[in-house]
Amino acid sequence: MSVTLGDHGSLGDHGSLGGNGAVPVKTAPSGFTPLSRRRTITDDAVRILVLGSVLLALVPLVWLAVTLISKGIGPILDLEWWTRPQIRGGAGNAIIGTLIQTALAAIISVPVGIFVAIYLVEYSDRKSATARATTFMVDILSGVPSIVAALFVYAAWRTTLGMERSGFVVAIALVLLMVPLVVRSTEEMLKIVPQDLREASYALGIPKWKTIARIVLPTALSGIITGVMLAIARVMGESAPVLILVGSTRAVNWNPFDGSQQSLPLMMVQEYGKGPGAFDNVWGAALTLVILVAIIYFGAKVVSKVFSPKQS
């Protein structure tokens, strides 16, 4: 297209930049075909379907949250809720037992799960018998019900070894439930770390173990912590292991290796067995457990942000 510039900055016959500096109207490039009406309608329909699915998924979540808060907020706002003996020592006693049992399970499960995931992603040959056997066992453990894990630990701990029930035995059962979740989440996070980062580190002469420790793990740290917290949230509310492997107590027991130890799941089961009159205590214990999980989760996310690589 030929353009001629006049004395006053005007374009020729094909457009102008008048004194007000107006920009020429843009036209569609040659060969451009607008979306057909059918494709536009299909796109809008899919958008509405996706939005409807999201809203539908939020309905039970919001309903659960509203019900849990409305029914459980009353008991936990009562100061006697934390100590009164009518609910077997109060929620404070149950919280202590829950945290101790879950912490023991996490101390064992998190390192084991992360090391297994590192082996599968960084060191193993996928076709080797060891890698295939490890993957198979992780898949099997992922589907094991909590009652089966509790019965297995009971048979091994009580029947075979003749040991007493305790909070530590509960932690062992929780380990069986937690390890496969940690392995799977860590494995997926390590896979999405760009291979270029590893190769750049190797090119600088850095050993593989140091590359994993200084480059790969910090890069995937946020996702790993999220997976670990999902695993902790799952095992923290398990009731089958505490019903089979430990007894309840009114007294606070800080020693998980000796004697009975209360926990929030055990407290909920006991209060539910008392009938409708004790349902407020059940809702209060449930809300307490959810708040406890939320506090731990957000605390872990803060830690992950502090130690994750900073974006430049």
Task: Outline the fold blueprint.
Layout: H1 37-77, H2 91-123, H3 129-142, H4 146-160, H5 167-191, H6 195-203, H7 208-219, H8 221-236, H9 240-245, H10 264-272, H11 279-307
Membrane topology: Multi-pass membrane protein
Subcellular location: Cell membrane
InterPro entries: MetI-like, MetI-like_sf, Phosphate_PstA, Phosphate_transprt_permease
Let me know the average pLDDT. Answer: 82
* Uncertain stretches: 1-19
Shape field:
globular
Number of strands: 0
Number of helices: 11
What structural category do the secondary elements indicate?
mainly alpha
Order of SSEs:
HHHHHHHHHHH
User: What is the name of the CATH superfamily?
Assistant: MetI-like
Question: Which CATH top level class fits?
Answer: Mainly Alpha
What's the multimeric state?
single chain
Domain module tally: 1
Describe the main β-sheet briefly: none
Terminal CA distance reads: 45 Å
Radius of gyration: 30 Å
- Looking at the overall shape, the CATH architecture is Orthogonal Bundle
Considering DSSP H and I runs of 4 or more, what fraction of the residues is helical? Answer: 55-70%
What's the CATH topology label?
MetI-like fold
Q: Approximately how much beta-strand content do the residues carry?
A: under 5%
Describe the structure.
This is Phosphate transport system permease protein PstA. It is a multi-pass membrane protein. Keywords: Cell membrane, Membrane, Phosphate transport, Transmembrane, Transmembrane helix, Transport. This protein is an all-alpha fold and about 300 residues long. The chain has one domain (about 80-305): MetI-like fold (Orthogonal Bundle). Helices cover about 65% and strands about 0% of the residues. It is built from eleven helices and no strands. It has helices at about 35-75, 90-125, 130-140, 145-160, 165-190, 195-205, 210-220, 220-235, 240-245, 265-270, 280-305. Helix 8 (about 220-235) packs antiparallel against helix 11. The longest helix is centred in the N-terminal third of the chain and has 41 residues, at about 35-75. It is globular.
